[in-house]
Task: inverse folding
């Protein structure tokens, strides 16, 4: 009976409405469509006026029996919007447009999806050429638009409003809500998995902060995508991409079903990926399934785990007497002794550790373990040995990743397991505290190869450590005065080699060959007994902070490894003196090579130095576990080896000053010409302070001499050289004096405004630099000098701009006007004040920098004055 009815119904609809017409632009109530009714057109029933987009009732794949109301991009057949993503219908299920809105009905006539109720009746539905479906009343007022309810994609020109999310499809053949989300907050965009963040746009080196406003929406267009501020016009964050050239090129932003935020461009009938994040593919949290170990080589299981036989995706414990807890149903509690914690292994990390705060700080491993045992939704934890911090892993287990910085990461992960035979608990003894044993006990059945690789690796490590230990003096043997400071009290992990004072005296021939002096003291050349040449920095300007703080900082500095950072080989304490032993750099510091009397540095070398310095600083700011602000970026601290490779020195030393000192110190610190405005305005010092100084260094690389220049006219009238610029070699003599002495950053700004970039380049390189090359460096430098720190690029941004992976951003003139005040200082000789009656914190400043610091202080006073005189800008 029912079958006959169905056939009749089918026949009637066949005869009555089977349609070959596709509507154009607009449809009006009452309108009905189903895949079946429009089968001749594969379910398409409406096209936008210029046919850019098509609305259809479609299934994701020909074999699928799930049908959805979709809008797709006509040329590429890419679905950009889905109405009933979680409630698919069959091929005869219906889309209906009535006076009350859109509804979608399954075979039993029930509505499975509909637009909300409206106050007025719907007069028409339009599919626009932008891809937007709008419902209009009879006055053409928009009642509803699909752009306000994005699914997993936004198209060029669509406003993605703050607070909204894109939710990935479960799979390419299933449009239902998947596990990954892209959320837009008032400050940034972030990717989340099961509610846990694993990527933030603001931390991406390709995103450029342009304003401090709150975000109101995100929009994709021909030049990339932008987060637009509340004012509706100002760009807060921009991500630039290759410009769209052809009219038919088309760009979308979407979250892929495997958790990547991608921007795709359709060009020449092909999709090109312009942007994909996270860049490290392993940072998508479930790429290798539960507890799978993701690396560039693919997926594997950590030692002690094997591939989950049930799912063949992800890993489970190799020890059959243990099982992972079932999902937590809230009230389930077991006695803590039922749980055992299986280590994940050294150097293996979990994504959420990078984005969440520890559940507790300053606790022991056992406390952390107890915290996890008492919490049913805790599935494991990470414990930071050095920082004594405890991070809980909750709710879901994702993949394991390799630590990006093995040397620094001392966090160990443990997965909660339930012992199936509680009585054998003690025999198993699988508790967190005896980690080294576990790797042996839990020999996996499979993955033997992996184990042996790990074993070899550990073996190499131990050998290395042994070697190190050989060089390391064994403390108790040397009871000389350098050990009278009770350092043995402090057990600090990762402390570099400790040298004996007598060894350093011998190596430096009693400190007889000074090779430089910096903000903290003199530097001497030395040769160790094993013939290694080193630079020994004798620190005399230290605060009276405790030994423990000193050692902590040394341990941090000693554990930083990057090709563009000078390696700390060791240290020594002797009475009140501290010595730092660095690798020796044959070419000395950049100021000598750049401003010295030797042949001029070629442009290519200058560019490489600029990139190397940027990379080194970017690493300090975001590559290591603890952000390090250099605070004193200048050519004197940029060392070069024989191949002109950059090695930045003196990083991490700023922290050796005690807080009381740094208050005063910060106002006076740094070297003339490198000081960012925030030193003078009591604003917080941040990594962007280094960016400013870097911009100054970049300008000096361009012109081949000091920014503050030698002022020929001034010195003519005033035979005593001004203290403005620590006179560095013969820079003023090398270059023909310019007619008018001018503050170089200001000159750079003026020449930029006039597009005369080549006028800024070192005249010795004349003819060997193109305007394009010069323009790039000048623009990057000016962006670094923006007055508002948050609107300077990050060092990572700078690297990408220099390398060319990102287009160079236009400097903002409104943020550079302050240079005119700084600049005025150089054309008004009367402003050169005499150094009297300025109190200095005793013992803070090294003699070598005292005079320059003093003039900086005076400059700051005059800058403040000039600001007051001219009133608020
Ligand atoms: C649409 O259908 C409803 C009920 O089926 C009817 O009341 C209404 O008049 C129809 N509207 C038009 C424009 O045909
Ligand atoms: C609504 O828009 C359509 C097409 O754009 C137009 O023809 C019609 O006159 C408009 N109606 C009103 C009331 O403005
Ligand atoms: C993209 O949008 C931004 C911000 O609205 C704008 O400045 C830029 O010129 C646009 N680019 C193109 C190619 O339309
Ligand atoms: C529609 O597509 C054409 C060519 O493909 C393009 O020039 C036009 O800008 C598109 N219209 C909209 C509103 O996107
Ligand atoms: C943690 O640090 C302590 C000393 O601070 C050390 O004895 C212990 O071996 C370290 N544990 C691990 C697993 O590295
Ligand atoms: C239990 O652990 C989860 C996951 O880390 C955490 O979100 C939650 O706050 C914890 N609950 C308690 C009571 O500590």
Result:
């Amino acid at each position: 009976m029912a079958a006959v009815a169905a056939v009749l119904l089918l026949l009637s609809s066949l005869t009555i409405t089977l349609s070959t017409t596709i509507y154009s632009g607009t449809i009006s109530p009452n309108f009905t469509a189903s895949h079946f009714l429009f089968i001749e057109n594969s379910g398409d029933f409406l096209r936008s006026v210029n046919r850019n987009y098509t609305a259809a009732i479609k299934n994701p794949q020909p074999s699928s029996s799930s049908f959805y109301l979709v809008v797709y991009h006509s040329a590429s057949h890419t679905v950009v919007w889905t109405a009933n993503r979680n409630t698919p219908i069959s091929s005869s299920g219906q889309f209906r447009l009535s006076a009350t809105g859109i509804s979608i009905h399954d075979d039993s006539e029930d509505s499975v999806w509909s637009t909300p109720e409206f106050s007025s009746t719907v007069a028409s539905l339009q599919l626009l050429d932008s891809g937007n479906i709008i419902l209009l009343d009879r006055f053409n007022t928009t009642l509803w638009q699909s752009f306000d309810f994005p699914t997993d994609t936004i198209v060029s020109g669509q406003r993605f409003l703050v607070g909204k999310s894109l939710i990935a499809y479960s799979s390419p053949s299933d449009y239902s809500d998947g596990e990954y989300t892209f959320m837009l907050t008032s400050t940034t965009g972030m990717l989340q998995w099961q509610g846990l963040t694993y990527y933030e746009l603001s931390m991406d080196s390709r995103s450029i902060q342009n304003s401090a406003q709150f975000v109101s929406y995100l929009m994709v267009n021909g030049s990339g995508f932008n987060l637009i501020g509340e004012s509706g016009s100002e760009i807060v964050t921009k991500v630039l991409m290759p410009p769209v050239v052809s009219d038919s090129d088309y760009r979308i932003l979407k979250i892929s079903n495997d958790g990547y935020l991608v921007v795709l461009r359709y060009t020449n009938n092909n999709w090109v990926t312009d942007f994909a994040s996270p860049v490290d593919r392993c940072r998508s949290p479930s790429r290798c399934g539960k507890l799978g170990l993701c690396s560039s080589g693919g997926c594997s299981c950590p030692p002690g785990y094997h591939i989950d036989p049930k799912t063949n995706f992800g890993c489970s414990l190799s020890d059959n007497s243990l099982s992972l807890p079932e999902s937590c149903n809230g009230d389930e509690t077991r006695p803590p002794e039922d749980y055992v914690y299986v280590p994940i292994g050294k150097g293996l990390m979990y994504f959420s550790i990078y984005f969440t705060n520890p559940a507790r700080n300053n606790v022991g491993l056992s406390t952390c373990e107890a915290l996890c045992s008492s919490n049913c939704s805790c599935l494991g934890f990470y414990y930071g040995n050095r920082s004594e911090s405890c991070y809980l892993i909750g709710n879901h287990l994702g993949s394991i990743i390799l630590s990006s910085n093995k040397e620094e990461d001392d966090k160990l992960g443990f997965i909660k397991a339930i012992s199936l035979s509680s009585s054998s608990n003690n025999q198993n003894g699988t508790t967190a505290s005896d980690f080294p044993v576990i790797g042996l006990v839990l020999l996996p059945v499979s993955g033997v190869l992996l184990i042996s690789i790990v074993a070899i690796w550990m073996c190499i490590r131990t050998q290395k450590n042994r070697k190190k230990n050989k060089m390391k003096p064994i403390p108790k043997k040397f009871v000389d005065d350098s050990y009278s400071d009770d350092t043995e009290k402090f057990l600090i992990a990762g402390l570099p080699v400790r040298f004996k004072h007598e060894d350093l005296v011998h190596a430096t021939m009693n400190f007889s060959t000074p090779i430089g002096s910096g903000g903290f003291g003199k530097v001497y050349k030395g040769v160790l007994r094993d013939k290694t040449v080193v630079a020994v920095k004798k620190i005399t300007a230290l605060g009276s902070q405790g030994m423990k703080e000193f050692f902590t900082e040394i341990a941090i500095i000693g554990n930083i490894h990057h090709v563009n950072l000078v390696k700390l080989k060791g240290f020594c304490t002797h009475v009140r003196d501290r010595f730092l032993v660095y690798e020796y750099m044959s070419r000395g510091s950049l100021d000598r090579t750049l401003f010295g009397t030797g042949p001029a540095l070629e442009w290519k070398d200058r560019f490489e130095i600029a990139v190397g310095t940027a990379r080194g600083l970017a690493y300090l700011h975001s590559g290591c576990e603890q952000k390090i602000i250099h605070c004193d970026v200048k050519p004197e601290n940029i060392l070069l080896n024989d191949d002109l490779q950059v090695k930045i020195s003196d990083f991490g030393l700023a922290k050796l000053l005690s807080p009381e000192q740094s208050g005063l110190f910060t106002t006076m610190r740094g070297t003339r010409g490198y000081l960012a405005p925030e030193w003078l305005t009591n604003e917080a010092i941040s990594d962007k302070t280094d960016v400013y100084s870097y911009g100054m260094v970049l300008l000096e690389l361009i012109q081949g001499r000091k920014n503050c220049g030698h002022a020929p006219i001034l010195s003519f009238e005033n035979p005593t050289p001004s203290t403005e610029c620590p006179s560095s070699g013969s820079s003023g003599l090398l270059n023909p004096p310019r007619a008018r002495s001018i503050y170089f950053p200001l000159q750079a700004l003026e020449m930029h405004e006039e597009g005369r970039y080549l006028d800024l380049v070192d005249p010795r390189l004349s003819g060997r630099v193109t305007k394009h090359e010069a323009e790039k460096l000048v623009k990057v430098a000016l962006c670094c000098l923006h007055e508002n720190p948050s609107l300077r690029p990050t060092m990572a941004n700078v690297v990408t701009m220099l390398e060319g992976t990102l287009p160079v951003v236009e400097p903002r003139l409104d943020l550079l006007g302050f240079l005119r005040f700084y600049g005025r200082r150089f054309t008004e000789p009367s402003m050169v004040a005499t150094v009297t009656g300025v109190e200095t914190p005793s013992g803070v400043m090294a003699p070598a920098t005292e005079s320059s610091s003093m003039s900086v202080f005076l400059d700051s006073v005059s800058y403040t004055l000039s600001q007051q005189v001219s009133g608020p800008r």
